[in-house]
Structure formats: C-alpha cells, structure tokens
Specification:
single chain; about 140 residues; Arc Repressor Mutant, subunit A
Length: about 140
C-alpha cells in the first residue's frame, strides 16, 4: 500500500493541515489552535480534572500544563483542587475564556464548512461514524 493511501497517514495529514489553517484563522484573535481546542472542550464538557482534560484534548499532561499556564495568566481558565482528591486539579473555563472561545468558534466554523464542502453531507456522516467506531475500538483496547 502506498503511504498516501494509508488511512491513518491520511488522517494525520488532514489534522496537521487543518491545525495549520486554524492557527492562521485564530492568529488575529491572539489564540492558538491548542488553546481553542482546550477552551472548546471545557465549554462542551464543563469543569474537568487534568487527566480527563488531557484525554478529551488528546494532549500529553506536560504539554497541557504548559498550555493551561498561559491560559490562566490571561484569565481564560481557572484551576482549583477537587473536593474528593486534594492532589487532583480541576480546570474550568472563566467568563473571559468563554468570550474568547465564542469569537474563535465563528472563525473555526467557517473554516470547517469550507473544508467539509469538498464532501457531500452523507460522506461526512459516514466518515464521522467510521472515526467514532475506530476511536471506540482503540479505547476498548486500552488506548
């Protein structure tokens, strides 16, 4: 099989190029793709422990810690201890972070619509179902 035909190579290429495009779209807002993804996760999932946030964003904990440090300095997120485990850190989005995310979401939604317009809605739905199935298989296998 040619490298360009390998499904996971293609996925990596799409994500890499989309991340570059998102960074370009978010630059005028002073926001990076990593920060947008982290804020978006907190908007949709609510406050999360560092471990859960790392799982949802697919960032290594050390990278996530660096990302959160800058976001906390700008008042976009808050970090506190959890009630049941003094060692665990709970991350929540701050009002300022919610406002930044709302502005960024418009730019990302426009970019996403442009990229997805290369496929029919049915094709997009099928890819989404397939990727969810693969993700579930990996999770069930302990990854």
């Amino acid at each position: 099989m040619e490298l360009e035909d390998h499904i996971f190579f293609l996925c990596t290429q799409v994500v890499y190029r989309r991340d570059r495009a998102i960074n370009e779209a978010l630059r005028p807002l002073g926001l990076l793709n990593t920060e947008w993804r982290t804020l978006g996760t907190l908007v949709r999932k609510g406050p999360l422990t560092m471990q859960a946030l790392a799982q949802w964003t697919a960032y290594e904990r050390t990278r996530l810690t660096r990302i959160l440090h800058g976001m906390q300095e700008r008042g976009w997120i808050e970090r506190t201890g959890t009630e049941h485990d003094g060692r665990a850190v709970l991350v929540r989005i701050a009002p300022r972070g919610r406002a930044v995310h709302a502005r960024a979401e418009k730019a990302v939604d426009a970019l996403t619509a442009q990229v997805l317009s290369a496929c029919t809605p049915a094709e997009v739905a099928r890819v989404r179902r397939s990727l969810r199935a693969m993700r579930e298989r990996l999770i069930a296998s302990g990854y």
